[in-house]
Design brief:
Aminopeptidase; 10-stranded mixed β-sheet; single chain; 4-stranded antiparallel β-sheet; alpha+beta
Length: 323
């Protein structure tokens, strides 16, 4: 009888791992080793795992061990948890049980897993999530994200609210601002740092991080910049997370040009390009009030703005699994 085994990842498995993620049902760019390689050596205590049956790779789990000895997935990324093909519930349960057995043998007390939301599944399935809950996993946190369903196709503008439609049409008609793909990561990051400073934060990525990602995963990044009289005033860095979802990872603008509504142009171009290139969703990120002590507190103003573009709420949840 075939047995499911768990083994730690090593560098010799890098190509096998990434090929598996690319053809998986629920993997994203954040699960790729070539993405995780942008982190400097020694920054994280990596503990990636591979699940096999008779030598055949069945699942992967990118992860790290934190200072308290807990396994976290993702570590150094936005989404993590177990990546599989479009597998049955029975196989999903076997994978979860194999992980729990590995944790027990390794003396790891807990695993915290944050899978990509359901929209990232090529074929919708929550077998893994139910298997974890059946094995008594509980939830650490839930976040509310928002995403635009591209089912309207080229008629996507009809889903925008009246204000957004009117604003976009005026921008396109007047031509005072324009948008184009860019490779100017330095200027983009400078404006992004200015934006974050207004909220007493800093971007997740340094400029060197972004340049390293551009080198490692050039096929997964698309940088848009908005210009006014030749001057860059806004932009968005898109992560092409998998073949189904485009993720707006960063939006930024110079606030002295806010009256020109450049983010409306960014949203229009992002959705237009995603539709034209066969994507099904545009994920525009979490919508939390980062100034509130409760990390689950929603930012109603941000949510209202995202809903102008036909965005819907999707959950980003942390599963807490014990051996």
């Amino acid at each position: 009888m075939s047995r499911l085994t768990v083994e730690p990842y090593t560098l010799r498995h890098r190509d096998e791992w990434d090929a598996f993620v690319e053809r998986s049902n629920n993997g994203t760019m954040f699960h790729l080793q070539r993405f995780l390689d942008y982190h400097p050596d020694g920054k994280w205590n990596w503990h990636h795992l591979m699940f096999r049956v008779d030598g055949r790779l069945e699942a992967v789990l990118p992860a790290g061990i934190n200072a308290n000895g807990h396994l976290w997935s993702p570590t150094g990324a936005s989404y993590g948890s177990i990546v599989t093909a479009d597998v049955s519930f029975e196989r999903s349960l076997a994978i979860v049980d194999a992980l729990r057995g590995y944790l027990a043998e390794a003396g790891i007390p807990d695993a915290y897993l944050i899978p990509a939301p359901l929209i990232y599944n090529i074929n919708y399935s929550q077998h893994l999530e139910y298997a974890m809950l059946y094995r008594k996993a509980d939830f650490e946190l839930h976040y509310i994200s928002h995403a635009i369903d591209l089912k309207r196709g080229t008629d996507f503008l009809a889903g925008f609210d009246a204000t957004a439609r009117k604003t976009v049409r005026k921008i396109l008609r007047d031509g005072a601002i324009t948008i184009a793909e860019s490779d100017d990561y330095a200027t983009f990051h400078d404006i992004l740092v200015e934006n974050k400073a207004r909220h007493n934060t800093r971007p997740t990525h340094t400029l060197d991080d972004l340049l390293r990602l551009r080198e490692l995963v050039p096929d997964k990044l698309r940088l848009l910049m908005v210009y006014h009289e030749g001057q860059p005033i806004a932009g968005s860095l898109l992560f092409l997370a998998n073949r189904k979802v485009v993720l707006c990872f960063y939006n930024m603008l110079r606030y002295e040009f806010e009256h020109l509504r450049p983010i409306y142009l960014v949203m229009h171009e992002t959705v237009r390009w995603a539709v034209a290139n066969g994507y099904e969703w545009v994920d525009i990120g979490v919508s939390q009030d980062t100034k509130d002590a409760n990390p689950m507190t929603p930012s109603l103003g941000l949510i209202n703005f995202k809903e102008r573009f036909d965005a819907r709420g999707i959950l980003r949840s942390t599963y807490h699994l014990r051996p």
